[in-house]
Fold these 2 entries.
Entry 1:
Amino acid sequence: MSNLPIYEMLARAFAGEGVDTLFSLMGDGNMHWATAMSKIDGMRVFHARHEHCACAMAMGYFSATGKVGVATVTCGPGVTQIMTALTTATRGGVPMVVFAGESPINAKWYNQALDQAPLVTATGAHYVRAHSTARMYDAVREAFYVARHERRPVVLGVPYDLQKLPLPGPSDYVASSFLIPETGRTPPNPDMLGRLVERLAGAQRPIIVAGRGAVRSGAQAAIEGLAAASGALLATTLPARGMFDHNPYSIGVAGGFSTEIARELFAEADLVVAVGASLTYYTVDGGALFPKAFVAQIDEQPRGLKDGMRTADLFVKADAKAGAEAAARELARSAAKAGFRSPALAQRIAQAAPDTAQFPIEPGLFDPRHVVAELDRVIPKDWEMVSGSGHSAYFQTNMRGRRPEQFHVMREFGAIGNAISIATGVAAAKRNGKVVLIEGDGSLIMHIQELETLKRHGLRILICVLNDGAYGAELHKLRQDGLDDSGAIFGRTDFGSIARGFGLRGTTVTDLAQLESLMRDYDAQGTAEIWNVPISDQITSPTMRRLRSKGHGVM
Ligand SMILES: Cc1ncc(C[n+]2csc(CCOP(=O)(O)OP(=O)(O)O)c2C)c(N)n1
Ligand SMILES: [Mg+2]
């Protein structure tokens, strides 16, 4: 029997899991534990202003470090606040543990009482009820085990009267990492590999699409080798964007955000090989991107059915790197072929103009395409880049030469408002100020209170607001459908003043030539900063323009 209360021992168990950073919002259900956490050597605790944001910060921390993100919320209303974050984490495969209080198990009445588990499990997250004082450590271990092994969020619910009891039983904690099976990289099945290699050898116009699984597996060089051996072009999913920017045969992002030339080349493809990419609805643009291609998938967990569609015609169950290397080795036995590649095509790709559609722009407002091009020029390539989910998020995918490991985006649930918190989590991990958030005005204002968190903890991020004074995504769709757009327009918020109100720096950009000196100022000073960039609401992204021709508004 330990003399220490359970909350204290639970804090030690979290430290035993390797946790060094916690994102918190306190209440009765978690404040004893959170305070014990803050006393642990080397533990950094960040106090967010909304529970959703505490969780989204933990998700950003995961994105920047690969470590399980950890957040804490109180019972009842603390838990109801985090439904969007949990669903987003589930869809994005984010390992996260949320320490949640539960109302006192022995109370006859408690105003915040709520059956938390069904709410949490409805989001796809796992719920661990820690109701046995004797098995508290098992509960923590299970939470981290599931988060790590299944790459999903877990909520650990601990009634707060139990937290104050002494921990019965032995007090040595065994971390979940000791229990996770070490299996090494999965090699491909030889028969399935043979079939893939046959396809690659015979294809005239192959394209390889790499996804997040390829990033995780470190498969970039292996995939480039396989593409060279088979004469394939290279593309990525949105989260893996930037992986092949240096390669003359890279055609960028596959899917709704594909460029014109990528779209044209995909339409000609006779073979598409997805490596560590789950082939979502977005990646295949609803099935319209490569209608003529035979599709093969190399994946640790191949899925035949995804987002209501058949994913591929051939599956090779393998780690991305191991699979790509094995295929390249086999392919090397046959004669090299040009496939899709030619110097003329490389030149066309290099010279392909970005979207040049013309729009009338009001005086004093910028074209977001020009803004993003200028940001790409002044922001160093080694910065972490965080992206939102509104209409204007399309434009920043045109930024080049930035590593996918440094691109942080969680769009899988399609929720806006997360990005300031994700950027805060990234900044908490990096601690060097080299984090840029490019965000829409509507999304930023949804959780603008987190500027206070940035200020209080001295976290530095550069926030560039593409400010069209509207919910652009809705505005463009309403206009395309010939409806009144006024409900989507709220006017251009003065984010510079708001930033200054929180004790941060902020300015409205009046000339894009200012960005270079603003960048020098940001580097020289010590707080987070907002660049408020007023953009025109007339510029419709190519993705949005295509929706019209498809005749539906599902983004
Ligand atoms: C939580 C949530 N609420 C509402 C929406 C619907 N929605 C999608 S995009 C968008 C507009 C976002 O506006 P802004 O951040 O200014 O970006 P813009 O589209 O103007 O570039 C809205 C309201 C959503 N996706 N998620
Ligand atoms: Mg907007």
Entry 2:
Amino acid sequence: MTVKKVNSNLKHCNTCGLPESFPGIHFNNECICNFCINFQGLEYENNKREEYSQKFESMVKEYKGKSTYDALMCYSGGKDSTYTLIVLREKYNLNVLALSFDNGFVPEQAMLNIRNVVDNLGVDHVFIKPRFDVLARIFVYCTDNDVYPAKALERSSAICTSCMGIIKYSALRLAIEKNIPFITYGWSPGQAPINSSILKNNPAMVRMMQKTVFDPLHRIVGDVIKPYFLEEQHFNLSGHFPYNINPLAFLDYNLETIYESIKRFGWKKPEDTDANSTNCLLNSFANVVHKQKLGFHPYAFEMANLVREGYIDRSSALKRLDEPENPKIIKLVEDKLEYKGDFHV
Ligand SMILES: [Zn+2]
């Protein structure tokens, strides 16, 4: 595969930078997109943040110390989830179990970061590592075929959606088995809206949502994928269904503070990842495939949200999205996946 950029002659929103190739976008006469026009404003966001932050504090009082662990943190080792883990320990004093996923493409430095941070923070840790041949089959199939509906691909690539599905339901399964009240994520405020930052899982909803990931993956690789999803025995434990919490949506999100805090716990920036991910080499490959197939960057929506909410400026967001992936990393991924598929550009 050769590495090509998204067509840079596209029209972009004057406010948030979202391109005209993004699904469902339209512009007014001043070239401002419908997402910006519908944005409720920073004051609304700040009030919501305060409301959710207080809600979480009262939930911490209610649940802390009642189970083996207070929270199961989905810990990628990236900057945002590392910072979230620190906040859970230092600000809320929670007893956290960290869960990381090894998809075969975690850079050496990211592995080191994970090990250093959990030890320096005094956090127990579990790795989930499915067989690589199974994961490789999924990644290759997702590259050559349309596995998910277009709506599911507005905010992440098909490869990321597969990994995230496995992580999300593995975490839920483990939290139910251990009766852990909170599953915590390190999504940036651009990735997850404030209104969904505290969500109680319920069996009927989970059953429906799980199907959208489990069914396609099961068709690709069969029963070997079952251990990573909820089975009937889990659905029967409805009293053990945890809350999903995304603290960065309601706490201060400041990149300088984040980098400073995580450095204190031994975190170092991996040298060999691309601009949008500090913890996964496969991400570069997934981004290239997504851009070529769908005509927009899988991080475009997140970046536009961060611009709208005042976390970064429009030109640095566009610059980041415009940065080409490193051809060496793409080659490394193709070799490791033994990719000989139909997708070529
Ligand atoms: Zn916009």
